[in-house]
Design a protein that fits this description.
Chain lengths: 359, 126
Amino acid sequence: MVSTVIPFGPQHPVLPEPVHFKLKIEDEKVVDAIPAVGFVHRGLECLVAKKDFVQMTQVVERVCGICSAMHGMCYCMGIEEMMGIEIPKKAAFLRTVWTELHRIHSHLLWFGLYADAFGFESLFMQFWKIREKIMDINEATAGSRVIISVNVIGGVKRDISPEHRQWILSTLDEVEEALRDLEKVVYEDYTIRKRTVGIGVLSKEKAYELGASGPMARGSGIDIDARSLGYAAFPDLDWEPIVEYGGDCFARAKVRFREMLQSIGLVRQAFQKMPRDEEIAVKVTGRPEGEVITRVEQPRGECLYYLKGNGSKNLDRCRIRTPSFANFPPIMSMLIGCRLADVPVIILSMDPCISCTER
Amino acid sequence: MAIEAEDTPLEQLMWKVVTLKEAGYRFLTLTALEVDEETAEIIYHFDINLQMKNLRVRFPKGTKIPSISPIYFAAFWAENEVIDLLGITFSGLKIDYHGTMYLDAEDKDTVKTPFCRYTFVKKEAE
């Protein structure tokens, strides 16, 4: 059979960021898919040579807009471990609140893009309308909507006032109600099921072998969530990783939908159990030395930071393995054998973050 | 967590990786570092049930490293990144971008190893 190579991206209506796939097609079927990146590579890891270890907190927050607080937290956790710093308990809870809010708004953003990918425009607008409420919380508590700079080495920069807590809790009630209204649509709508059930299947064995991360892994039945490692306030909260077993686009969407509801519950628990102390950060003296690896669960999966300090103000190395980077080999496997018309939905079901991938 | 990495001679790398795969470990990523002007190292990160296992391989710069992508296919992606950013080369890569994963084909001869501190090669004068 004659094969054709079709370029998908870097500019495509379903792609929020530039990524390119060379799709080898036979008839309507994809037989090979090779990704190409490099359109927005910034070399942020390399900045350790120019920015000191304190300034690097702001640099890593800019790796990705959607999970900036998680990048900041992961980096700070690494430096704190190298320097033997124990952060105040309240700071751990505040970090948990902001990072779970990030998970909610990231998944809401993704659901909007996902609905848009199969032409469900009204659902796209509904999800993004709900997302605005979380963005308002970010703005009110951290000063900005997207890149929220709340983490510092030794704790957090800001506290959340009792008035803001009440307002956040009532806003989350509204968000939960709005999500419950959409639950039936996401799970039962004919169009959504037709475009996602049985599409882009990634088996549990393949997902494990190819190193899938986050909802990509959990949607295929792998019970892996880095929050189980017990960082921040997670050891004090009641939760369990959310796992689905279908391995298709629908299962991945279900994982994300259930995670949003779970994150709302986690924020409520965090506020309930948060200590009443005043201290939110400890004073940091000295310079980092040694090698550490820290891992946090971002909305797209597990993020891993390798940090190497030499006792000077600049680190020797800051290596960031983002979840989107890890999810490229699995997506290549998912695309093989699919129909050309399903490619946009399958690629989007990975929730690709190219800012993270290219750093 | 503070890193515990098993020092691994280059010639033992492949069978150690095969042993880990047989034991059920999954590949997380690899970290390449420039140690000094003459030496580089790669730390391979694996995990099972969130317990990490790291292998550290140190070698003189210019050594061709056997790719572990025939064992863990996902490693090709991280190995190609290392080629682009640190100039370490691999043999037996399952998919080889030949130094153009991030860099454009026309740039690859003028921008070399941008992440190297000691052997950084500046872009040629315009």
